[in-house]
Amino acid sequence: DLHSFPTRRSSDLHIALDVAAGTGDLTAGLAQQVGDRGLVISTDINSAMLSRGRDRLIDSGNVANVQCVQANAEKLPFADGTFECVTIGFGLRNVTDKPAALASMRRVLKPGGQLLVLEFSRPAAALRPLYDVYSFRVLPLLGKLVARDETSYRYLAESIRMHPDQETLLGMMQAAGLEDCRYHNLAGGIVAVHRGRRY
After folding, report:
1. Are 141 and 165 in contact (CB under 8 A)?
2. Spatial contact of 78 and 17, defined as CB atoms under 8 Å apart
3. Residues 6+ away with beta carbon under 8 Å from 119
């Protein structure tokens, strides 16, 4: 069932949560990590996107240990301390109240559990001029020519520009109560992985 939540509980059952899961790429990776004795909950606020992600998981055979739940990242409908790992990949940028979402994700982590945030970020200074040209000129043009959707690709560029940079997001995670926070830049800072734990 699309909106079901697991009732089984066990001390040796590994449970992970993928927030704003979209098409389910991170969910599939988590499902492989937790294996047969684990469970992954895939969430998205958009029911159509959640269904699309579920269909992709079914097509790939990654459904035995996955359940899908429609949920708002800012108000996750799970008990405190439920998950060993929470991920959000390219989804925090689209959340209206980021501090609320970070606090909600921290709340559902078990003590010692880890939050992983994969998101577009601020490139190194040397890359910014070229990256801006690509983001605000080339990308919307490609969207118009290839996908016939210039607006969505322009929104993508603008949302990336408005998203907090690496140090700001690090501070937001710490303010949400996460500890041992750090980040790692990928592709010269175009993308960054932020990590934090609940103790």
Report:
1. no
2. yes
3. 88, 89, 90, 91, 92, 93, 163, 169, 191, 192, 194
Q: Do residues 33 and 9 make contact, with C-beta atoms less than 8 angstroms apart? A: no
pLDDT reported for residue 1: 35
115 contact partners, CB below 8 Å, separation of at least 6: 85, 86, 87, 88, 102, 105, 106, 109, 173, 178, 194, 195, 196, 197, 198
Please list the helix, strand and coil fractions of the chain in percent, rounded to the nearest 5, in that order.
45, 25, 30
Res 140: pLDDT: 86
* Contact status, residue 169 vs residue 117, Cβ threshold 8 Å: yes
| Alpha-carbon separation of residue 149 from 18, 145, 157 (angstroms) | 28, 8, 13
The pLDDT score that the predictor gives to residue 11 is: 56
- Cα–Cα distance for residue pair 8/163, rounded to 1 Å: 38
Going by the DSSP 8-state scheme, the letter that residue 177 receives in this structure is T
Q: What is the DSSP letter of 63?
A: -
20's tokens: 């704003």
The answer to whether the CB of 25 falls within 8 A of the CB of 93 is no
What is the Cα–Cα distance from 135 to 121, expressed in whole angstroms? 13
* pTM score, whole prediction: 0.90
Q: What is the pLDDT of residues 133-145, one digit of tens each?
A: 988 888 888 888 8
Residue (of 173, 172, 171, 134) closest to 156 by Cα position: 134
* Distance, CA of 146 to CA of 140 (rounded, Å): 10
